[in-house]
Amino acid sequence: MRKDLTKFGTMRTSLRGVKDSSKSIAKKMRENWSAITIWNGAKPILSAAAESVPGMSVVVELVDGIVGACEKAKSNKESLAQLSERCQVIRDTLKGYANRANERPPQLDEAVFKVKEVFLKIKVRLDDRNDYTQFESVLFHAQIRKEIEKCHEEISACIQDYGFLLILQIREWQETFQQNVERDKIWIADQFSDVKQGQKMIVEIHQANFRDLTIAMQKGFARVHDNNKKRAGIERNLFLTLKMSGQLLPNHNLDHGEVTISVGEEVKFGRTRPDTTWHKGTYLGSQAVLVKTIRKPMLDDHKVIERFEREAKVWVDVWNDDNGRYTVPTYGFWETPHGDTGELHLVYPYYRKGTADSYLRAHPEHDHIAILLDVAKGLAVLHGMKIMHGDVRGNNIVIGKNNNGLLSDFGLSKALDDVDDSPHMSTPDHDSQPWWAPEVFQDRVQGLRSDIWSFGMTVYELLTYKVPFHGHKLVSSRVWERYLIDQEGRPTRPLENDIVERGLDDELWNFLLQECWKTDPKERSDINRVVEFFEYLVRRRKGGGGRADDTSISEFEDN
Questions:
Q1: Model pTM greater than 0.90?
Q2: Domains by residue range for the chain, with CATH
């Protein structure tokens, strides 16, 4: 008995030692195991349960990849964070159902397969976008945003077929997505407003991407209308981008403050109609511009904007072809109400020497024929693109930095006619009548050869310093038409020596009569013949030279 008790005591001591050892081991385990260690230990068990659903492990890996790709994104971070979170919720929901061995939804296998396909597409898209540089991510942020939205739409389309997943649609993603998009847009605007960051992007850009960059910058400029510091930064970078690329702004409706009119700086610019005023302004905070304001009854805002956006396409085509060599670029427009009428503002580079009709009168020493050759070449640019000017006259020719002539306001008279809401909208402007061809009076029809007639009248105007048919009172179209018929449509030839010395000699006068002022438009020369003749006149006067051919003007230079 005593031996048994002794044996029992020994066993109890041994058990007590084991118990103490177990406590020590447990304590050490508690001290050394982290949450990650515990998860890593549990993960194989959960994964094993999930793996009993075909494709579940692939879904888990894809979501891990999506999360990583979203975290590495260089733009659209708020929107991508939302996409990442949504994918994780779907993954966790599917895993939760997969771990219910006896309570799995009957469509679980099919749902996992469909989700796997959608997540694979999302992962591929994100990987492609993560190859972008910082600059490319900013430049193409709008395209990336559309792809993120498409990812959400594909997710919604996928899970709506499975009732057990519809709970995930209770909280609509669209509203949150739009909020995140706005946050991302603000971030993009910040990138463009940072002068150093913006200039770094400009240096990195390839020529083909300049337009995408200017589109993004102009949109960013519109978004920060209440932050002067950010606007100033974007203005500076946007102007630099345009200067480097040689492009115009992509959106020509400048109603977000791209142009600032200088208060009190109304300027006289040639002969000004009663409904027109001119002001100096600043374009993108960097360049002096001239703002032409036309006040007249107009159609509703929508039609004005629609008509001039169509006209802006012509401005861009002409700029891309001519680059401001012989024509004046139109930077853009905006429209504002003014009482019962509307005000249309048109923006041009500022040319301090003004218009040809005024400048040549004040500077008779300059070569008038060379300037007229420039004008003819400007018309050749337009006619080569099947564009009619419609109002060729000295007041629509400006003098550039190198005393060259530049043709402006092409197509404006027709565009204004289209938006004029007055009862006489089809009646042409009396102020331009001395330059009109007979068919404009008789049939209200204009064409390219009508410009040739008007060019001939402009030659007369700039060499005589007088309006064609000067001295005749402009009463009405009917009276003026009768007068022109009596005069056979041609002004009387001036014979003063100073006019002949400026270039209106026998040879030029005969050219005007025989090739510009034919009553039948078909009998008039085309613009190429006019250019050829004036090149000959310049060579004759210069002894073989010809300034106009070698003149290259950049619209960004200070004229």
A1: no
A2: 39-191 (no CATH), 356-550 (1.10.510.10)
